[in-house]
């Protein structure tokens, strides 16, 4: 077992965090778009991610010179901290910070993994201009007795350049803040409680240490823990009660002013230490000289180590308590000032008030306590060397220091000397790992009498130094103090090494004994791959190579791995060498690891694997029982049994076996217990399914390796436990591969079925497991099975043999109960999406089940009836059981599902698919249909209709035969409100026949109204995804108009309006009212989400929908609500409520309100259709009318009534006359185009409205004189020379008078004068003043 690096967590969206912390990098993305996955968590914007918009614009010079390297190395410029329990990570830069929390999610491969997602983000600064310099995530222990070892919550401690230290919750709530020194905070470090390994080690207290440029502050851990808990509870109470004026409890701290040192960059708080008498006297002599006084009891001191310059490393010692001075007057002078630094109550609390409240109160700098001076005791003087960081080992005896020369120096903390140096590690990041020996891995040695030579002695502890060199992109693990490098990994040049150096705060010598929290000693954050990794270092790597048997074993394992990778010149020589290597290995665990690598090799043949395993097995058996590892012996025995099984199955599959028994359709009918008619129906159904499926499936080349499985893969799939063979958790494809190895040759008649079943049963495979493997192979190889009907006979034989095995069918099984054996098979058929193979297997299962049921019933009946009487009785009846009924129900369901799947596979013979971007149709199974709800079947067919883009007329045509079979059924509303759709000029092929068969198979689920309702909904859903596809919405309205029952039609139309249309409709209304004309394409896309052409079609379809809704409301009371029935085979359906059922639940509409919206829709449609200008749609309505728009169509609203203001009527009249003029002009230009091109013009809006008639109808609703609109229409027709059309519009009296006038003015040459005279005469004739016109 070697050192390894393990990935244990991913970042869900690390790039979004980078964009938040580095806005200038975000702005450099192409076209300014955010390259963030839309499926990721949206909490970034919800939790203050909008701060992106608040960032100040960058200078043009900065924008013009982007740093490409910063896109990958940005993490090096951030303040980073990870909780040792891995429940929180903080990434901060300047004033901003992101708090990341872990969440369990499924990866792209379907495996569950932990991912860091944003929990909070925002700005942390309170003072203007202050920035974050250091951060810690400290998990706090739970005080509950039922705690499982996880922390109660995690506190985030942040230091700022202003000198403030602030404490936050995981949600970014400020708990408390303290100004301990007016200089910038350089570093925050924490120490938590650890149980002393032996009595000679001093018990260390918890503390939080804060480093300033010339001072160090230590906060007692117990006091901090209690204060943070109290603050968090008070914040919760304040949030609940609304009272924020709660003062936090005081906090005790010590403050030392560090003297006699130039600069300080980093520090380490070693903790309390007690000198030995010799060290005490040596120190007194060095500092106090000849006259130094010595006390009998050595004083307790707190040791601090700093790194910086002059000295490069400084050692400080602060006396604890009020003990008498130990040294000369110099020591007395220092001790006299210690009392001012002990347990000072913190002053100047800022509390946790909100930002607006803090700004309201004038900010006052709190009082800062003076620091007690503390001189450096000694150091490592090196004027040219500048220290950069220091990292203390977990045992507090060693410390690693980095400097600006690219060195890593190992210090002995107690002696204050450098004991080792590594070169070539510039900008290195360091950490430690402490590994405890596992007693179970020890191997007792007879000649070793040390306490570490047996499994009962104390556990040893090893220290490993981890160095990350970003310049080289390498992560190294070194054994300390003088040990070798035990591991090295290439990890990239932009990572960050995180070493917290603490665990959970709030524990003591009592509570920590029952806690075993999972903590990570060291982590590596890789921003390129977005992963978090940790190290696994085995303890034995710290042992000496000369005396470590495990190291020798690892050397043999590496030699074995190299041998397995090379191409062997001779298999015999390789086999002999491998046997020697594995027998030389001492440790059983390593020997097992070596055997596993041998069995996983692809280069070694089966015979070699068997011989090596057998040799190791024989060697273990010949040893003394006391020295043999039972686990290894059992492992070898299990692998040998699996190898023997593989050999037996391979031999059976390689035999030359062919069944010469002829097979006819009559034999198949007898085998499946079907008569001739039923067999022909089954064959026809399967043949049609096979034909349609072959048109849609891709080409699959035949696989000659079916039934062949490498021994390596075989051993990976199976495991032997408790005298039985089980299958490991493998994928579905691997499951089929294993089943093919056992049964594929048997199903093809190329291997003996009886011998195979006997071999598998004797090996320890359970019948249930074999049945599962057999069904998986059968159901997955559908194409091959349908091409070879003889395989049905082989399946029947195999299933009969499996059913006769022990424990397959319980002997006490009663015919009135459900057999678990057959239920397992039915469940597999229900879940299968290969319906053809499932139907055949269900017929075989039904036949075998009936055969076994009859034999058991005959056996039991013969025991009660004598001889010939029993024979006569059993020939005249068939045994009935509950299983038989379940089989019949399943056969009907599978037959229905097969027919439906055949329909979904079929398609029209068109040159190109009309809906090319449609989603692929789902593969059906009985389970999916049972879980799809009562509308699931119609929904599947509707998706298929949408993909084929079939006209509603095709559905009606396929349903004519069913209508002819039931001529007495009323055709309610069949001519109500739908127009004929031209036939689709494509070859439909077998679609009408399949649709007709589906109608007969599902008379309730595919009732025509239900099918049209689902098609209508499917089309509008697809249109909503892409509003530019206006034809989808048009086709949806066509299906809506083909719904005959007004109850369904009313509900579907109302649901469409509320779900998809009303928001876009209101947006279009406000946009057109704002611009006062038909808006341009850019504005339509911005406000409505579609182009101007698509919006025109959208408004026309909305008008059709509203008119259909009003017609349905009128007819609704005259019709009865249809009854939603379900076929008998599908009564057990469960799932979501169907569209039809939702439609029935809709309320009655308020007819005048729908009519009011219809008028507005007509106005909008006319403006867009003819590109009218200087028209504001809402100006045509008064305040009551405006307020009623876009309200719920089922609500009662106050609508305009009575006489309208003449000003509104004048505006409305002008609008209607504009519409008529534009309509006649468009009609005249269309006629000219038709004459010139001799082809019918096509409009992008579908079938156009009869606008003059619509204008007259609008005049009625808008209280405008209809005669004025109609006369204007006639005048426009005469103006464009369409006299015959004008005469059709005029009444008989008007036509007669017009003829007399025409005779009178025959001689008039000026046509314009003639037209004016004619119009004037007509106006005078009907008594209308010219001024009104």
UniProtKB/TrEMBL annotation:
Annotated compartments: Cytoplasm
One GO MF term attached to the UniProt entry: GTPase activator activity
Domain Rab3GAP regulatory subunit C-terminal, chain residue ranges per copy: 770-1291
Composition bias type Basic and acidic residues, residue spans: 30-39
Ranges of biased composition (kind: Acidic residues): 44-64
Primary location recorded for the protein, binned into one broad class: cytoplasm
Gene Ontology cellular-component terms listed: cytoplasm
Pfam families the record matches: RAB3GAP2_C, RAB3GAP2_N
InterPro entries: Rab3GAP2, RAB3GAP2_C, RAB3GAP_N
Residue ranges of every copy of the Rab3-GAP regulatory subunit N-terminal domain listed in the record: 74-498
Chain positions covered by the region annotation Disordered: 30-69
Keyword entries, A-Z: Cytoplasm, GTPase activation
Superkingdom of the organism of origin: Eukaryota
Protein family membership: Belongs to the Rab3-GAP regulatory subunit family.
Protein name per its UniProtKB record: RAB3 GTPase activating non-catalytic protein subunit 2
């Amino acid at each position: 077992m070697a050192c390894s690096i393990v990935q244990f967590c991913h970042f869900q969206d690390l790039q979004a965090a980078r964009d938040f912390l580095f806005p200038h990098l975000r702005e450099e993305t192409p076209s300014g778009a955010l390259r963030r996955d839309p499926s990721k968590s949206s909490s970034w914007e919800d939790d203050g991610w909008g701060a992106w918009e608040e960032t100040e614009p960058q200078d043009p010079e900065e924008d013009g010179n982007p740093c490409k390297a910063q896109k990958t190395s940005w993490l090096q410029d951030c303040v980073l901290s990870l909780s040792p329990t891995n429940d929180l990570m903080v990434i901060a830069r300047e004033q901003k910070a992101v708090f990341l929390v872990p969440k369990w999610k499924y990866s792209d491969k379907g495996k569950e993994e932990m991912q860091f997602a944003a929990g909070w983000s925002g700005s942390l600064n309170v003072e203007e201009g202050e920035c974050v310099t250091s951060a810690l995530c400290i998990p706090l222990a739970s005080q509950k007795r039922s705690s499982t070892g996880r922390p109660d919550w995690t506190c985030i401690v942040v230091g700022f350049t202003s000198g403030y230290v602030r404490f936050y919750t995981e949600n970014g709530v400020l708990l408390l803040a303290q100004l301990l020194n007016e200089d910038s905070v350089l570093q925050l470090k924490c120490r938590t409680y650890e149980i002393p390994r032996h009595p000679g080690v001093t018990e260390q207290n918890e503390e939080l240490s804060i480093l300033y440029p010339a001072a160090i502050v230590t906060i007692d851990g117990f006091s901090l823990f209690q204060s943070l808990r109290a603050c968090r509870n008070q914040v919760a109470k304040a949030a609940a009660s609304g009272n924020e004026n709660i003062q936090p409890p005081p906090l005790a701290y010590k403050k030392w002013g560090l003297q006699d040192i130039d600069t300080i960059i980093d520090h380490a708080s070693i903790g309390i230490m007690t000198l030995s008498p010799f060290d005490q006297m040596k120190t007194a002599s060095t500092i106090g000289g000849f006259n130094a006084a010595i006390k009998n009891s050595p004083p307790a001191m707190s040791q601090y180590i700093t790194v910086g310059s002059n000295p490069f490393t400084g050692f400080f010692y602060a006396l604890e308590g009020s003990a008498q001075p130990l040294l000369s007057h110099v020591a007395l002078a220092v001790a006299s000032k210690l009392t001012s630094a002990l347990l000072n109550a913190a002053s100047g609390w800022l509390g946790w008030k909100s930002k607006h409240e803090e700004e309201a109160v004038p900010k006052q700098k709190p009082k800062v306590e003076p620091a007690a001076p503390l001189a450096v005791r000694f150091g490592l003087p090196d004027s040219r060397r500048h220290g950069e960081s220091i990292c203390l080992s977990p045992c507090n005896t060693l410390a690693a220091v980095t400097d600006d020369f690219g060195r890593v120096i190992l210090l002995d903390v107690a002696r204050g000397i450098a004991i080792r140096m590594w070169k070539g590690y510039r900008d290195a990041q360091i950490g430690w790992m402490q590994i405890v020996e596992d007693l179970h891995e020890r191997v007792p040695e007879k000649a070793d009498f040390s306490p570490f030579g047996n499994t009962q002695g104390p556990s040893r502890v090893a220290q490993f130094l981890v160095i990350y060199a970003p310049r080289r992109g390498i992560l190294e693990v070194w054994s300390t103090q003088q040990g070798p490098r035990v591991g090295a990994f290439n990890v990239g040049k932009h990572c960050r090494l995180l070493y917290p150096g603490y665990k959970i705060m709030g524990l003591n010598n009592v509570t920590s004994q029952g806690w075993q929290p999972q903590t990570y000693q060291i982590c590596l954050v890789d921003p390129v791959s977005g992963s978090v990794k940790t190290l696994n270092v085995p303890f034995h790597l710290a042992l000496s190579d000369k005396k470590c048997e495990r190291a020798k074993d690892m050397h043999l394992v590496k030699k074995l791995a190299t041998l397995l990778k090379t191409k062997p010149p001779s298999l015999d020589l390789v086999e002999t060498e491998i046997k020697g290597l594995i027998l030389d290995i001492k440790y059983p665990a390593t020997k097992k690891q070596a055997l596993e690598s041998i069995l996983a090799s692809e280069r070694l043949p089966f015979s070699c694997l068997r011989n090596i395993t057998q040799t190791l097995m024989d060697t273990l058996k010949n040893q003394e029982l006391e020295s043999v590892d039972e686990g290894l012996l059992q492992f070898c025995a299990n692998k040998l049994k699996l190898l023997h099984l593989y050999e037996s199955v391979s031999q059976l599959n390689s035999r030359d076996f062919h069944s010469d028994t002829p097979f006819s359709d009559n034999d198949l009918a007898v085998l499946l217990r079907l008569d001739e008619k039923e067999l022909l129906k089954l064959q026809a159904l399967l043949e049609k399914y096979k034909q349609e499926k072959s048109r849609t499936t891709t080409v699959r080349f035949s696989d000659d390796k079916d039934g062949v499985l490498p021994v390596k893969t075989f051993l990976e799939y199976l495991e032997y436990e408790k005298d039985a063979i089980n299958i490991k958790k493998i994928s579905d494809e691997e499951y089929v591969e294993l089943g093919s190895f056992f049964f594929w040759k048997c199903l093809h008649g190329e291997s003996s079925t009886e011998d195979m079943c006997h071999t598998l049963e004797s090996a320890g495979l359970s019948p249930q497991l074999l049945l599962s493997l057999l069904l998986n192979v059968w159901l997955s190889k559908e194409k091959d099975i349908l091409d070879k009907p003889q395989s049905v006979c082989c399946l029947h034989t195999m299933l009969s043999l499996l059913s006769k095995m022990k424990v397959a069918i319980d002997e006490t099984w009663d015919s009135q109960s459900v057999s678990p054996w057959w239920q397992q098979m039915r469940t597999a058929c229900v879940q299968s999406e290969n319906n053809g193979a499932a139907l055949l297997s269900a017929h075989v299962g039904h036949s075998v089940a009936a055969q076994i049921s009859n034999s058991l019933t005959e056996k039991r009946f013969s025991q009660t009836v004598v001889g010939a009487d029993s024979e006569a009785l059993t020939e005249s009846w068939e045994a009935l059981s509950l299983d038989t009924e379940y089989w019949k129900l399943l056969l009907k369901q599978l037959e229905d599902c097969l027919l439906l799947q055949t329909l979904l596979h079929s398609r029209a013979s068109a040159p190109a698919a009309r809906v090319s971007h449609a989603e692929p149709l789902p593969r059906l199974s009985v389970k999916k249909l049972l879980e799809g709800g009562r509308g699931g079947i119609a929904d599947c067919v509707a998706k298929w209709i949408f993909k084929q883009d079939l006209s509603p007329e095709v559905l009606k045509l396929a349903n004519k035969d069913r209508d002819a079979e039931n001529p007495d059924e009323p055709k309610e509303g069949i001519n109500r409100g739908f127009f004929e759709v031209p036939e689709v000029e494509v070859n439909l092929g077998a679609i009408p026949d399949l649709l007709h068969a589906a109608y007969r198979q599902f008379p309730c689920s595919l009732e025509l109204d239900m099918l049209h309702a689902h098609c209508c909904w499917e089309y509008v859903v697809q249109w909503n995804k892409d509003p530019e596809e206006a034809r989808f919405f048009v086709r949806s309205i066509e299906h809506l108009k083909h719904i005959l029952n007004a109850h369904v039609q009313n509900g579907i139309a109302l649901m469409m309006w509320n779900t998809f249309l009303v928001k876009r409709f209101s947006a279009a209304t406000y946009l057109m009212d704002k611009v006062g004309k038909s808006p341009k394409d850019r504005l339509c896309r911005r406000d409505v989400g579609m182009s101007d052409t698509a919006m025109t079609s959208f408004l026309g379809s909305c008008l059709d929908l509203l008119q259909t809704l009003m017609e349905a409301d009128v007819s609704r009371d005259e019709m009865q609500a249809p009854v939603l029935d379900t076929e008998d085979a599908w009564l057990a359906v469960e799932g979501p409520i169907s569209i039809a059922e939702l439609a029935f639940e809709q309320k009655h509409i308020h007819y005048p309100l729908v009519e009011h919206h219809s008028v507005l829709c007509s106005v909008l449609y006319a403006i867009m259709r003819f590109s009218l200008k200087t028209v504001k749609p809402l100006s045509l309505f008064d305040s009551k009318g405006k307020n009623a728009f876009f309200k719920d169509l089922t609500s009662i609203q106050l609508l305009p009534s009575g006489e309208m203001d003449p000003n509104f009527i004048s505006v409305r009249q002008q609008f209607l006359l504009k519409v008529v003029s534009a309509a006649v002009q468009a009609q005249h230009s269309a006629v000219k185009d038709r004459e010139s091109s001799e082809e019918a013009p096509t409009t992008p809006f579908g079938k156009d409205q009869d606008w003059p008639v619509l204008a007259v109808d609008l005049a009625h609703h808008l209280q405008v004189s209809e005669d004025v609109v109609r006369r204007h229409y006639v005048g426009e027709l005469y103006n464009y020379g369409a006299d015959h059309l004008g005469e059709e519009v005029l009444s008989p009296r008007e036509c007669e008078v017009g003829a007399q006038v025409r005779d009178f003015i025959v001689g008039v040459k000026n046509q314009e004068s003639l037209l004016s005279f004619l119009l004037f005469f007509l106006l005078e004739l009907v008594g209308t003043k010219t001024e009104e016109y």
